[in-house]
Amino acid sequence: MTSFPHTTNAFLFDLDGTLTDTVYQHVLAWKEALDEEGIALSVWRIHRKIGMSGGLFTNMLLRETGLAVDPDLLDRLRRRHAEAYRRLSTGVVPLPGARDLLEALTGMGIPWAIATSGRMETARPALEKLGVDPGRAPVVTRGEVQYAKPDPDLFLAAAARIGVDIASAFVVGDSIWDMIAAQRARALGIGLLSGGYGREELERSGALRVYEDPADMLKHLDEVGGRR
């Protein structure tokens, strides 16, 4: 791990909907998993919870349907979601400017990491399409922390992985759960519209700046300390 001065800016990225266009594949995969268990839930309700940890996500979904929280059912839902997502992820692509943004930060010597509430089994296809090797690049997944978003653990672990002070880091995400986790971690939040949440929602949840997608963020990188 390279250690950077505590005043160094750093960027901690969510993955789905932030760097890769994968939010709706996850939504449909959860919908399929729920349907297979005979649990009726509208697609829009599922979308509003994408970005949470899978465990919290399924707990909240079951609460909305009035079903008891059954550990066996939760495990089946997680496995069904992972299986469905693997099939749907063949069409996964990076969001516009995602590769260029990471390359620009690397070229400027600005540290970055990816922190996803997904487990590696579902994150790997997206990382591969993004050109990020988790064996070489700093990637933190759900299995490495006790709690995922909206808890701050993922982003705290990502900052520690690259040796920066979380207070000097920007958390970049597409959901309100990313922004809430950023605030709880004492980091500044940057919201992207590429996951389907609105500008006002992201700002109300703590986003300091909101951009359309990684390409738009790259154009305005100097606004958030992204400069040599």
Automatic annotation (TrEMBL):
GO cellular component terms attached to this protein's record: cytosol
Domain of life assignment: Bacteria
GO MF terms, alphabetically ordered: phosphoglycolate phosphatase activity
Pfam families registered for this protein in UniProt: Hydrolase
InterPro entries documented for this protein: HAD-like_hydrolase_sf, HAD-like_sf, HAD-SF_hydro_IA, HAD_sf, PGP-like_dom2
Keyword Hydrolase attributed: yes
Keywords: Hydrolase, Plasmid
Gene3D superfamilies linked: HAD superfamily/HAD-like, Putative phosphatase, domain 2
BP GO annotations: DNA repair
Signal peptide positions on this chain: none
Xref: NCBIfam families: HAD-SF-IA-v1 (TIGR01549)
PANTHER family with a match to the protein in the record: BLL8046 PROTEIN (PTHR43434:SF16), PHOSPHOGLYCOLATE PHOSPHATASE (PTHR43434)
Name listed for the protein in its UniProt record: HAD family hydrolase
Organism for this UniProt entry: Azospirillum ramasamyi
